[in-house]
């Protein structure tokens, strides 16, 4: 029987050999067929055994793409290839990461240049790129926003915004929206308005109140009740357009009324622009559709240019005074590191230089109008098309219809977003640099998918694994389409 130390040494030797094999793959620009097949098998095995086996089941339409699962490898613009060289149009955009597409050369170049100098800060000296990025954000954010703090993700940005609001107002409560999404760490999760995420982690941050999104009267009623019973509210937190809920656009008077009410009741207004910011909705910031200046803005996802992870929460000098007076009350060892800041500086530059925001507004109008035409012709399948810019929701008549569309599109070389929890709405969220030719290709492949599903309805009935609700739709003589579950 071997000793614990010898077993440990055997494990370390295996880790050394495995890590070298993995590094060899990392350094290869191209893979042989043998290497590609090995990488696919290894990736599926590693996810199942060491990361999360649920991902394999959830990503079935991807993991079972032909004889070998689709494992991402490289991309440029709005297209990417898997390790076997199969090419896809990206209509998911990393849920908002890839506004500038895959590997934008100017963003990659900025990170590579900074990498040769200093990848991480000393923590003691002043790192110049953090100051540069903060200055740029002050120039491009609405209203009197001037100061920024940098983190590594959107949920951290929301956590920081909540903390800032509590420090400034000396109140603890928040009003958020049903079906809103703000992150999954415990503070931001308390704001998130979906039971499937919140319930397993209860109890969360108390003094949180959820109202229907877009219902200004419900917000005001909650503020009135809070004032009467002493539930001090620090801030109202909303997405300009709800993303995970399915690209839900509020009534045009909603954000102006929020601004008015927050001023009247002396609470802060926080715009969670983690997904909508940096051009996604056809404005640089989503709140600009309604000419509203919030007190605090969060940003992440696209801020890193699709190359580095970075998030930020930003506010006015008056509110930021509570951080200026104690700069160590909120810190991050790796947030706002030089590589991430270099990527964000380049991302802002490219967004402005290439007119990305204006392009997005035009492409969004084009895409939405054509999707509405399709929805009208398949009115027994679609209930609505919603969204602004290139944050678009396809709404179907039921959840089960979701799976076949995204699966059919993926087989046709289009990756579209889905979620385990709600396939009734499928987001269309491509890189903002997508071309009109690529949009037309997606629309054509969507038509092909719908037509095939309609003409092959009998095949669905014969499939014992087909969801019961979809069988019932087919047996009733209705046409059926679907897509991977999307949040």
From TrEMBL:
The keyword Transferase applies. Keywords: Aminotransferase, Pyridoxal phosphate, Transferase. Its cofactor is pyridoxal 5'-phosphate. GO terms for biological process: putrescine catabolic process. It comes from the Bacteria. SUPFAM superfamilies: PLP-dependent transferases. GO terms for molecular function: identical protein binding; putrescine--2-oxoglutarate transaminase activity; pyridoxal phosphate binding. InterPro entries: Aminotrans_3, Aminotrans_3_PPA_site, Class-III_PLP-dep_AT, PyrdxlP-dep_Trfase, PyrdxlP-dep_Trfase_major, PyrdxlP-dep_Trfase_small. NCBIfam families: PRK11522.1. Belongs to the class-III pyridoxal-phosphate-dependent aminotransferase family. This is Putrescine aminotransferase. The gene is patA.
């Amino acid at each position: 029987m071997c000793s614990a130390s010898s077993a440990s040494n055997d494990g370390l030797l295996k880790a050394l050999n495995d890590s070298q094999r993995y590094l060899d793959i990392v350094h290869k620009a191209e893979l042989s067929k043998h290497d590609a097949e090995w990488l696919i098998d290894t990736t599926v095995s590693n996810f199942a055994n060491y990361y999360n086996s649920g991902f394999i089941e959830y990503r079935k339409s991807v993991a079972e793409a032909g004889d070998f699962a689709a494992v991402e490898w490289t991309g440029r613009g709005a297209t990417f290839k898997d390790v076997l060289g199969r090419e896809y149009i990206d209509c998911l955009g990393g849920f908002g990461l890839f506004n500038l597409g895959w590997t934008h050369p100017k963003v990659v170049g900025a990170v590579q240049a900074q990498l040769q100098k200093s990848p991480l800060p000393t923590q003691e000296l002043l790192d110049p790129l953090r100051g540069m990025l903060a200055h740029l954000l002050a120039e491009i954010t609405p209203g009197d926003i001037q100061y920024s703090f940098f983190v590594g993700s959107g949920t951290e940005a929301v956590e920081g915004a909540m903390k800032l609001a509590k420090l400034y107002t000396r109140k603890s409560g928040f009003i958020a929206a049903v079906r809103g999404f703000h992150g999954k760490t415990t503070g931001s999760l308390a704001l998130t308005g979906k039971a499937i995420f919140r319930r397993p982690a209860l109890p969360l941050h108390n003094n949180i109140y959820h109202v229907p999104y877009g219902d200004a009267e419900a917000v005001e009623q909650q503020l009135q009740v809070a004032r009467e019973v002493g539930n001090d509210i620090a801030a109202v937190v909303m997405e300009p357009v709800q993303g995970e809920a399915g690209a839900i656009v509020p009534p045009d008077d909603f954000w102006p009324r929020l601004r008015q009410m927050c001023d009247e009741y002396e609470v802060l207004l926080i715009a969670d622009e983690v997904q909508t910011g940096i051009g996604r909705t056809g404005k640089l910031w989503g709140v600009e559709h309604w000419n509203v200046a919030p007190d605090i803005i969060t940003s992440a996802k696209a801020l890193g240019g699709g190359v580095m992870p970075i998030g930020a929460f930003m506010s006015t000098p008056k509110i930021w005074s509570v951080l200026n007076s104690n700069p160590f009350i909120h810190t991050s060892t790796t947030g706002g590191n030089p590589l991430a800041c270099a990527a964000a500086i380049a991302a802002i530059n490219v967004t402005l230089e290439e007119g990305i925001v204006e392009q997005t507004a035009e492409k969004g109008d084009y895409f939405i109008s054509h999707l509405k035409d399709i929805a009208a012709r398949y009115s027994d399948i679609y209930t609505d098309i919603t969204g602004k810019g290139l944050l678009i929701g396809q709404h179907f008549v039921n959840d089960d219809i979701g799976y076949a569309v995204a699966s059919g599109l993926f087989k046709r070389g289009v990756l579209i977003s889905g979620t385990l929890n709600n396939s009734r709405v499928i987001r269309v969220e491509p890189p903002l640099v997508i071309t009109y030719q690529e949009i037309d290709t997606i629309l054509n492949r969507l038509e092909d998918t719908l037509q095939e599903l309609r003409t092959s309805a009998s095949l669905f009935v014969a499939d014992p694994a087909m969801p019961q609700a979809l069988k019932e739709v087919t047996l009733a003589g209705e046409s059926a389409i679907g897509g991977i579950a999307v949040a």
